[in-house]
Amino acid sequence: MGKRDRDEGKLAAPQAPFNAALARLKERLPEGWSPPAEAEPAPEASAAPPAKGPARAVVRLERKGRGGKEATVVEKLALAPAALSAWADELKRALGCGGAVEEDAIVLQGDQRERARRWLEAKGVRKVILG
Fold this sequence. Notes:
Translation Initiation Factor Eif1, five-stranded mixed beta sheet, elongated, alpha+beta
């Protein structure tokens, strides 16, 4: 008996008791009933413009003092410590890498300069300098 012969019985359609139960439920529905359509979100009358990010950021690659491993450092964001931590978490999640906040800079594992630059520009940073 080959593998295909063993698996054929697993993909069979549901048996009669299951179909009969659905048929009984369908009979209980009122006439003309149809599933509800997805509700469209109401347009906001006073849609606020997207929040502006910091004026600039410097993104550079660093190897010194890190055991030869590459780290991308994002600095000069001029954000409050809580906001900097939130940005670091969001940036790490978006890029799929590890990292931390060191003093007033976000440090990411690996060479993430281009990806970080694109993310920062999308976030509203007006000038991103690759150093």
